[in-house]
Structures are given as C-alpha cells and as structure tokens.
Amino acid sequence: MTAAAAIGAAAVVSITAACAPTAATTNPAGSAGSSGQAGPAGNNGEQTAAPAIKPGLTGKAIVLATHASFSGDDAVTDASGTAYIGWIADSGHGRKVNLCVLPRGAKACMGGVSQVDSLGDSSAFGLRVLLTGPHTVTLVWQHTTAASENGPEGDEIATTTSSGGPLTAPQDVATAPSFGTMSDAAVGPQGTIWVVSEVAGDKHALQIRPGFSNAPVTVSTPYLVGYAQLRFAGTTPVLVIDKDGSISSPVSAASQHGGSWSTFSPVASTSTADANFGLASTPSGVRLIATVNNASYQPVVARWTGSAFGSPTLTGDTNSCAPTSHDPVSDASGRLADVSMECGEVAIANLPDALHADLFRFPVHGTFAGTLPQLTTTPSGRGWVTWSIETPTNDELFAAPLLLPGLVGSATKSSGG
Questions:
Q1: Where does residue 269 fall: left (phi above 0), alpha (psi -120 to 50 degrees), or beta otherwise?
Q2: What stretches of 167-283 show up as alpha helix (H) in DSSP?
Q3: Pick from 140, 193, 286, 335: most CB atoms within 10 A?
Q4: What is the per-residue pLDDT across 225-257, written as a single tens digit (0 to 9) for each?
Q5: CA distances from 64 to 76, 94, 123, 138, 274 (A)
Q6: Cβ neighbourhood burial of 402 (10 Å; 0-12, 13-18, 19+)
C-alpha cells in the first residue's frame, strides 16, 4: 500500500450537533434541498417545498489524520462545490504535505489522501490552500534550508498543486527570511500569489513577497507581530496584525497605495484577548473579525472603508464562553461565515449580510490541539469544517460536512448596527 493509500484509509466517526442555532431559523441556507433548488412540482403544477434540512453537521466526520503532529492546515471550495483540505503533518517520518479532495456529497477523500514531501522535515510551517484556476489549488508553505544558517534570506517558499488528482512534486519557488514564519498567503491581482513572512529575531517588521518572481518588500510594524493576515480589496492589499504576547492591544491595519505601504493604524474598539483575529475578502469588501475591547470578549466585525476599518459592530455571538480563534471565509453568495473554538465546542457563524450572525455549535469530545478550526462554504450554505484534538499519542484531524444556519429576523446588534 502506498503512503497516500495508507493515509487515505480514513476512519469515520459520528459527531452530532450540541445545540440548535441561537436564533430561530425557519428557512436555513440551502433549505430548498440538497442542491439548493426548488422542490418537485405538485399535482397542480405548483412547486412544493422540499423537506427542511436542519442547520448543523450533515454527515459523519472523517478522520483525515491520526497520531500526528500538525504544522498548519487550510480549506477552500471551488465553483463546482468541491472542497480541498490541506495540512502539514508529521507521523514519525518528518513533516509531509497532505491534500484531501471532497467533491460535493463526498463521504471520503476522493482517491484517498495525496501526500508529498514538505522539503523541510522539521521546519515546514504555515500551509495555505489557494484556488489558482478552475478546479486547481496551489498549496504554499515555508521551510528552512542549509542557507538559513548563512544569511538573512535562506528560507524557501515552496508549492505543490492539484487539479483534483494527486499533488505535484513540491518545489521551492522563492526565498524567505531565514528562520522566519510564513504568516499568510493570498491570491492577488493577475493571479499572483503574495506571501507574508515574519522576520526572525527582535525585529518590528514583516516581509511581503508580491508574487514569487518579484522582489520582497519589508514593511515596518509598530511592535513584534504575533499574527498577520493579508487580503485584497479589489487590487488594494490590506494587511492586519496583532501584538505578540498581548491580550489587550488593538489589532492594527495598513494598506498599499501607489507601491508604498501606509503606517499601521489601530482598529478602534478591538483587542486580541488571547484569540487570533480573522480577515476575509467578500463580494462587498474586506471584513475583519476580532474581539471587542471589554470584559465580554464578544466577537465584532468591521468593514474596510478604503483607507481604514470602520467602527466594529457586535456579530451577535453572546456565548459566555468567548471565541478563542477565528477563520472567516466568504463565497459567491456575499455572506461572511466564521468558525471558532468556544471552550470544548466548535462554533459556526453565518453572517449573510457580512455583519450579523446566526450560529450553531457542536462538541469535539476532547481537547483542542494541533491546529485551529478551518471552514469553507458554498453559496448554497453547505460546506466543510475541520478541527483537531489531543490523543494519547499526538493529535487527530477531523473534517465534517455542514449546513450553515440561516438568519431570520434580527441578530444581536451593537449601536453601530
């Protein structure tokens, strides 16, 4: 059995939703049926409604990897509804890059899990899965090399691709800061891939590589960065950071205009509160999800106005156990959706207007470990969520299909509405 086939023999477990959505949902996203279409015609020629499908997990969870140490994961969905879930894992033979392809309605990874070498057995980190063509994804990560010991630009950015089949052979495509960390990667104008890397050492700076063939740019930051994300408002790159080790400092944002980066400005009424922020490009613009700067630690969302983020508003998640992670995503419907860790549960939020949320949660029956939960959605409201938990021998990574909750009536709003 090949390594890919061995991994691809994924186990399946049953996990059920812990609670119903926090707001009444009489017409959840995609409730017209599994395809999002109207139901069959009745005897009088009128359309009859298909049975409503309850928001929540819609199938058994797949065990993607077990007895492994993880160094990054990510998930995306293409226009056909096929999901691509990637991760870096070490199961005792060095860090490998893995991909699971899940066509619409899949109950297992198509063809098993595809696996390639990471080119950095002990250093590969920061995986991103990016849509780079019809039915094509590019996986991007960073690793050290022998040259990392001898100069400031010795790490390498590496990639592998898939068009629904096995991953291609990995290759190094550009240098990166020695012993740095890849914070993010995103597809920019003309399909170029931009990479954000933290610079090792006591340096208030990030390195941005605006396409693999272009020279890197160093961007000064007001402090040591703990977390950084990059998204595009049209052709304008927007970069958001938070302060390493701080739980009370606001997140800060900068953008590039005319080839120059602006100074970072704090986003009012936000804090890190021991939770990463999240950034997403939606059809209506870039959105930021962060933590409000008071003792409730509730999530807030803010819009990019063209030069800064506007006043944040509460999303409506009032759980007494505040989120400790975020992975906001968008799809062609225009919605913003987010997944969070909330104590021992995964919380899924649907923000159809990209501002106000309806939610459902489910228990993970274990202790979160290894990776942060990831989410990917389709316009019909269907999608996949991933999470990982501790085991006696390293960790396990799961994926499960879901249907987002719909927003009927009003969610909790701040005065900024």
A1: left
A2: none
A3: 140
A4: 999 999 999 999 999 999 998 988 999 999 999
A5: 16, 17, 21, 19, 28
A6: buried
